[in-house]
C-alpha cells in the first residue's frame, strides 16, 4: 500500500514538471503562472506546494533534470564512439551537447545560462550520481587524474560543463561573438587545454 502512495506522489510531481516544461517552452517562464501549471497537470493548486515552494524552485529542479538528461545522453554517446583517448572522448561529449542545443534552442533558452552539473557538493563523497560515478572511474584511469584529488577533478569537469553552457547560450541565443559552428574549434581547444 505504501509503495502505491509513493508512486502516485511521484507521478503527480512528474506531471507538474512535465506541464511546467511544456508551458515554459510555449510561453516562457515569466508568462506562465502556477495556476496554468496545475491546470495542465490536472492537479489541485495545493498539490503544487506539496512539492515546490514556488515556480523558481520548480524551474531549478527542471533545470537539474534537463542538465542530467543531456549529460547522460552525451556520456552514452561518447561511450558508444570511444576513441581511446580520454580528452577526445570528452570532446565527443561536448560535441553531443552542442549539437543537442543546436537542435533544441527552446530548451537552451529555458535553461538560460544554468546548464550545469546537476549535483550538490555533498553528493560528491557519496558518489550517488551514477553518471558522476562512471565519469570518475574513467577519469581515475586517465592521465588527467595524476596528482589530482577527486575534488579537483570535479571542479575541472564542472568548469568544462559551465563553459559549454555559457558558450552555447551566448552564441545560439544572444548571437555573440560568432556562430556556434565558428566557435566550436575555439571551444574544443579550450576544453582540451582545461583537461590537459
Automatic annotation (TrEMBL):
<dbReference type="GO" id="GO:0003677">
    <property type="term" value="F:DNA binding"/>
</dbReference>
<keyword id="KW-0805">Transcription regulation</keyword>
<feature type="domain" description="HTH tetR-type">
    <location>
        <begin position="10"/>
        <end position="70"/>
    </location>
</feature>
<dbReference type="Pfam" id="PF00440">
    <property type="entry name" value="TetR_N"/>
</dbReference>
<protein>
    <submittedName>
        <fullName>TetR/AcrR family transcriptional regulator</fullName>
    </submittedName>
</protein>
<dbReference type="InterPro" id="IPR050624">
    <property type="entry name" value="HTH-type_Tx_Regulator"/>
</dbReference>
<dbReference type="InterPro" id="IPR023772">
    <property type="entry name" value="DNA-bd_HTH_TetR-type_CS"/>
</dbReference>
<keyword id="KW-0804">Transcription</keyword>
<dbReference type="GO" id="GO:0045892">
    <property type="term" value="P:negative regulation of DNA-templated transcription"/>
</dbReference>
<feature type="DNA-binding region" description="H-T-H motif">
    <location>
        <begin position="33"/>
        <end position="52"/>
    </location>
</feature>
<keyword id="KW-0238">DNA-binding</keyword>
<dbReference type="InterPro" id="IPR009057">
    <property type="entry name" value="Homeodomain-like_sf"/>
</dbReference>
<dbReference type="InterPro" id="IPR001647">
    <property type="entry name" value="HTH_TetR"/>
</dbReference>
